[in-house]
Write a structure and sequence with these properties.
Layout lengths: L1 H39 L1 H13 L2 E3 L2 H18 L3 E9 L3 E10 L1 H14 L3 E10 L4 E13 L3
Parallel strand pairs: 1-5
Antiparallel strand pairs: 2-3, 3-5, 4-5
């Protein structure tokens, strides 16, 4: 009886150890696969991270983000000889949604829009409306300014 109890105990102990080794082997295999993937695709992953960094402006806090995008819009408007009538903004977690109304000439609107989209990859133009009044052209833009809070 003692021998059978001992044999059954050893059998159960072996089952537990075998299950433990199988789990460890699966974990190591998964880690190895992940490690191999990271090593093989490191250049691509670095490019993706660089592109992601380019699509977000790094700012210290949300107030500075708001001031920075307003200053940029004022600068572009001034450079293109158009005026800003109104700016409304809505704060998101990592973005600002802005509705901006400009006055000016059509060519100047197009120049400003081109400069905005080419030089600021972190600003998305979601919608624009253009209409003409008696003595002026009006452009209304809805944009999203993407930023990352950075404490560098």
């Amino acid at each position: 009886m003692i021998i059978w109890s001992f044999a059954i105990g050893v059998f159960v102990f072996n089952l537990i150890k075998i299950n433990h080794y199988i789990k460890k082997r699966k974990e190591l295999s998964s880690k190895e696969i992940i490690s191999r993937f990271l090593k093989q695709n490191s250049d691509t992953l670095k490019k993706i991270l660089r592109e992601r960094e380019r699509l977000y402006d790094h700012v210290v806090n949300q107030k500075i983000a708001s001031l920075k995008v307003q200053e940029l819009l004022n600068k572009l408007a001034k450079e293109n000889r158009i005026s800003i009538e109104k700016i409304e903004q809505e704060q998101g977690e990592n973005n600002l949604k802005l509705a901006v109304r400009f006055n000016g000439a059509l060519k100047n609107f197009l120049d400003m829009l081109s400069s905005l989209t080419l030089n600021q990859p972190y600003i998305e133009v979601n919608e624009f409306r253009l209409w003409f009044a008696k003595d002026k052209s009006i452009l209304e833009l809805k944009i999203k300014y993407n930023f990352i809070l950075d404490s560098r």
